[in-house]
Amino acid sequence: MMYYKFWYSSRWMIEDLLYNKFGPEYPSLKEISSYAAYTFVYEEPLIDFAHPTLNRIVYLGGIGARPPKKLDEHFDRLMSLRSKTVLISFGTVVMTHRIPE
């Protein structure tokens, strides 16, 4: 869904750049995309909103993800204290030391 919002809101800017670079005979993005066999979208479908899609759309979410690293000793010990552990991560926005127990 985010892809479509970006695409349709910025399409006129991209077409303007293509028009200036290649001239008025260059086909529009709408025309070019109508001939495309596939559309590659850099988006994670698991966290996107539910929406209808086509089988011509290939989601590439996570393509830039780095390979996992081994946990350092502190976190390895923490994660192995119990047979099952749930880790909640708020990224770098929330300072977990300020969350009440």
TrEMBL record:
**InterPro entries to which the protein is assigned, alphabetical:** UDP-glycosyltransferase
Keywords attached to this Swiss-Prot or TrEMBL record, sorted alphabetically, are: Glycosyltransferase, Transferase
Q: Give the highest taxon in the source lineage.
A: Eukaryota
Its Enzyme Commission number?
A: 2.4.1.17
Q: Does the keyword Glycosyltransferase apply?
A: yes
Gene Ontology terms, MF aspect? glucuronosyltransferase activity
Enzyme class of the recorded protein, top EC level: transferase
**Family (UniProt):** Belongs to the UDP-glycosyltransferase family.
Question: What protein name applies here?
Answer: glucuronosyltransferase
Q: Which organism is it from?
A: Pristionchus mayeri
